[in-house]
From TrEMBL, chain A:
<feature type="transmembrane region" description="Helical">
    <location>
        <begin position="59"/>
        <end position="81"/>
    </location>
</feature>
<protein>
    <submittedName>
        <fullName>Cation:proton antiporter</fullName>
    </submittedName>
</protein>
<keyword id="KW-0050">Antiport</keyword>
<dbReference type="GO" id="GO:0005886">
    <property type="term" value="C:plasma membrane"/>
</dbReference>
<keyword id="KW-0472">Membrane</keyword>
<keyword id="KW-1003">Cell membrane</keyword>
<feature type="transmembrane region" description="Helical">
    <location>
        <begin position="33"/>
        <end position="52"/>
    </location>
</feature>
UniProtKB/TrEMBL annotation, chain B:
<dbReference type="GO" id="GO:0015385">
    <property type="term" value="F:sodium:proton antiporter activity"/>
</dbReference>
<feature type="region of interest" description="Disordered">
    <location>
        <begin position="110"/>
        <end position="134"/>
    </location>
</feature>
<feature type="transmembrane region" description="Helical">
    <location>
        <begin position="6"/>
        <end position="28"/>
    </location>
</feature>
<protein>
    <submittedName>
        <fullName>Monovalent cation/H(+) antiporter subunit G</fullName>
    </submittedName>
</protein>
<keyword id="KW-0472">Membrane</keyword>
<dbReference type="InterPro" id="IPR005133">
    <property type="entry name" value="PhaG_MnhG_YufB"/>
</dbReference>
<feature type="transmembrane region" description="Helical">
    <location>
        <begin position="63"/>
        <end position="83"/>
    </location>
</feature>
UniProtKB/TrEMBL annotation, chain C:
<dbReference type="GO" id="GO:0008324">
    <property type="term" value="F:monoatomic cation transmembrane transporter activity"/>
</dbReference>
<keyword id="KW-0812">Transmembrane</keyword>
<feature type="transmembrane region" description="Helical">
    <location>
        <begin position="12"/>
        <end position="37"/>
    </location>
</feature>
<keyword id="KW-0472">Membrane</keyword>
<dbReference type="Pfam" id="PF01899">
    <property type="entry name" value="MNHE"/>
</dbReference>
<dbReference type="GO" id="GO:0005886">
    <property type="term" value="C:plasma membrane"/>
</dbReference>
<dbReference type="InterPro" id="IPR002758">
    <property type="entry name" value="Cation_antiport_E"/>
</dbReference>
Length: 89, 134, 157
């Protein structure tokens, strides 16, 4: 079980690195926002694995807050990209 | 037995997340990248959370893990929709292999109006809705 | 909706009366509450159709999970193999869903299933613009989307 946890943490860490490359390369702002979105989802997964590893269930509260923040950030970025145009929905 | 199921779920979740990251890095344009992040990443997190629920096997933890899954499955498509729409209308280019675009001719960048392409006979009998501005 | 609320109330009553707060007992309470409501639904107008809707919902969740997994495997295969097999494009899909809630539900489902991502709905709410990743066979894709919309709307109507 320990090896499986280490392996999945390694895979997710690699995924974070790849997403980071996309964050740096861009080329446009929406691409970076997509990379950040993927970051937050990956971090939710990592916290889930760590809560199994340490046997602490309270980490799940952190994942809920993390997912909520990521969603709000995505909405905010989208509004920013459209510069609050006349579309009101 | 339960250890094996847990391990499988964790590993497949991690693999799906890695695939999402590879997709974000490799795929050619914004909209195809969003395909990778919404689906693969949401499925990966769901699998990891099922593993967490199996590991603790208490009502409170299972409820919270289930809540995380439902929340992710509800918000991932909404976030993809707002970012995809913003990116598309802001003018990020589509990949050169794109075969079809039925949205572009119906969109007016000045007024931000999006037609359905069906209105020719519908407009004639369109009645004003109650919440229409005067 | 009112049926689900009654079901939860009955479950709560069951759990409190038996005094056993385990997950298995909660599930038993849900099942017994559902059975009781199914028995009395012909007498109470507010509950009409509740017994039929629950199995439909469970079937739909199964169908949805199957679609989610196959969607992912297909996209994953295209991501890891070097040449691109995809033929992406934006198509317009006429909607039969009318209210805001139905349109949101259908659009979210479409975003989570085979190689499709809902982009925007037209201003008059009659057409949903979808970005599809595999446009090799447009007819069957449109048929699949219409089938999914029909199944989703059957849950509410």
């Amino acid at each position: 079980m320990d090896a499986v946890i280490k392996l999945s943490l390694a895979l997710m860490g690699l995924a974070l690195c790849l997403a980071f490359v996309r964050l740096i390369k861009g080329p446009s702002l929406p691409d970076r926002v997509v990379a950040l979105e993927l970051f937050s989802t990956l971090i939710v997964g990592i916290i889930g694995v760590i809560s199994i590893h340490t046997d602490v269930a309270s980490f799940l509260d952190v994942t809920i807050v993390m997912a909520l923040m990521a969603f709000l950030a995505a909405i905010g970025f989208a509004r920013f990209l459209e510069r609050g145009g006349p579309r009101d929905d | 037995m339960i250890e094996v199921i847990k391990g499988t779920l964790l590993l497949s979740g991690a693999v799906f997340m890695l695939l999402a990251a590879v997709g974000v890095l490799r795929l050619p344009d914004l909209l195809t990248r969003m395909h990778a992040t919404t689906k693969a990443a949401a499925l990966g997190v769901s699998l990891v959370m099922v593993a967490v629920a199996l590991h603790f096997a208490e009502v409170a933890v299972v409820a919270r893990a289930f809540g995380v899954i439902v929340f992710i499955l509800m918000t991932a498509p909404v976030a993809a929709h707002v970012i995809g729409r913003a990116g598309y209308f802001v003018g990020s280019r589509l990949w050169s292999g794109t075969v079809k675009d039925e949205l572009r001719p119906n969109y007016d960048p000045l007024t931000h109006e999006l037609k359905s392409g069906l209105e020719t006979e519908a407009n004639a009998r369109r009645r004003p809705r109650e919440d229409d501005p005067d | 909706m009112i049926g689900a609320a009654w079901n939860l109330l009955l479950t709560l009553a069951w759990v409190v009366l038996t005094g056993d707060f385990s997950g298995l007992n909660l599930l038993a309470g849900l099942v017994f509450g559902y059975l009781a409501l199914a028995l009395i639904q012909s007498q109470v107008p507010g509950l009409a159709g509740y017994a039929q809707r629950v199995p439909r919902l469970l079937l739909f969740v199964g169908f949805f999970i199957k679609e989610l997994v196959t969607a992912n495997l297909r996209v994953a295969f295209d991501i890891v193999t070097p040449p691109w097999h995809m033929r992406p494009g934006v198509i317009a899909m006429p909607l039969t869903a009318k209210t805001d809630f139905e349109i949101t539900f259908v659009a979210n489902l479409i975003s989570l299933t085979p190689g499709t991502l809902s982009l925007d709905v037209s201003d008059d709410r009659r057409v949903l613009y979808i970005h599809a990743m595999f446009l090799d066979d447009e007819e069957s894709l449109r048929d699949g989307l219409a089938e999914m919309e029909r199944r989703a709307l059957a849950l509410f109507r």
